[in-house]
Prior knowledge:
The chain has six helices and 15 strands. The chain is of the alpha+beta class.
Amino acid sequence: MDYSIQQLSNYIHEFKKGGNAKFLSDRIKDTIYTISEGCRLTHEQARRLEFILHEISSDQALKWVVYDDLKRKLRDSICRTREEVASSFYAYWGKDAKQLSGINFKHDIYIGRITKGTVLYQWCKAIIVNGKASLYDEKTNISTVGEYFCFRKVPQEQLGLSPYYDLTDASGKYLGTAKRECYKFTFPFDAECMLSTAKDTYDNWNIQQRYASGKLKRNSMGQPLGMPLWTVGGQQQVYIPLGFGDDVRNKKRLAIELAKIAQRA
């Protein structure tokens, strides 16, 4: 695949220098087909293709050579590679791959590490403990701190989140609708992370449809019905797995540790 990508880059450069237009046009098209229908790309190969695609899209003559369907084939190959990177990261940590639906794979994925002292933000839900909103209940060891963060305070709709959620007490009793609050966390530990871009989507999981009595409305399969709210996405998000797989105890410990140092942003 490295050879095909390099060939595509060479053909494009020769075309832009004024080489044999008919010959080079055919070679460019054939090579794109070869790449898009070949073996899966590595993350680095996908990044190289992203650069080539940008080069094609910014050149007026090449726009007529590489028509929309061919560009779509390249984009699809790049997106599939990014999705595989994200899926592998989730699988390694034993996490639910359903969350991948909130990622925009038109943008790059980065796997990295945050170090102790890094400051991150999160729009948090709360629970009512002794009549007050809190991120942590000491009696039940429940913490509402999640695993998605951001580097600065941005509107939650740009992170694919509804500003509102179903407020409960520590026992899970529904108390009404509340608005998220943004908190700042100075991380007390190092952590593996994945950087991605939030996708535009309908958030239909934070607020549930209910009858006047407060009872949940359910579909024919018995699943709760959400109250969808459109979110625009577009902001970078930092996914930090708190705990490994089914290690609920460790996940609770880390989430509680973060809840205790949370500061209103």
